[in-house]
Amino acid sequence: MDQTMNESFNHAGTWGIALIVVVLVSWFFYRNFAPKNWREWVGAGAVQAFIIALYAEMYGFPLTIYLLVRFFGLDSEYVSASLWSTLVGFGETGMLISMLLGYALAFIGIGLFIQGWRQVHKARGENRLVTDGLYAYVRHPQYTGLFIALFGEGVVHWPTLFSVGLFPVIVLVYTWLALREEQQVLKQFGEAYRAYQRQVPMFIPRWGRWRQLAAASRDSKDDEAT
What is the pTM of this model? Predict the structure, then answer.
């Protein structure tokens, strides 16, 4: 079994690549989710831990697979560094499927929080409540995008014990942050925001509106409008 594991993990140990990816992904995250107070730093810290744990296992050492094989009796003719590939037993095919699905979700999520950031930044500059574009489907599209991207990359594409465990923690922390933010918005916009809350869900669009939400993430007309 040790020989099989060594052969399956022979692509691991590229810590230089792991470091580069962690730095790039972290830069992108902080560029769009720059923390402004200690509450936001709590959320950012959870995401940062998720990023480090994920890419350290993806490119460094597959600790999750090692622990499952060594201490929990996981055994297979094909032991892969990818958890889904190992559990399902589809080998490289399973790894490819999980990679394609994970990247698809990650890119959708990235599109959502980039477009959401553009819309809310423009609205803040004009001191108005944004309720169009992505905000017509969910009240916090940036966080929806973050959840989708992390789920795609750290649960679907390359799940680890740490990424799977941290994902619900991140969702809980950013739900708490969203509720705190809404208290501030209510003070500023009052009844207009209460009416908006009653009409639009927080993170998950109403049934049948996912396609419109994804399409709105690629629509730049709101940025060009005056």
Answer: 0.83
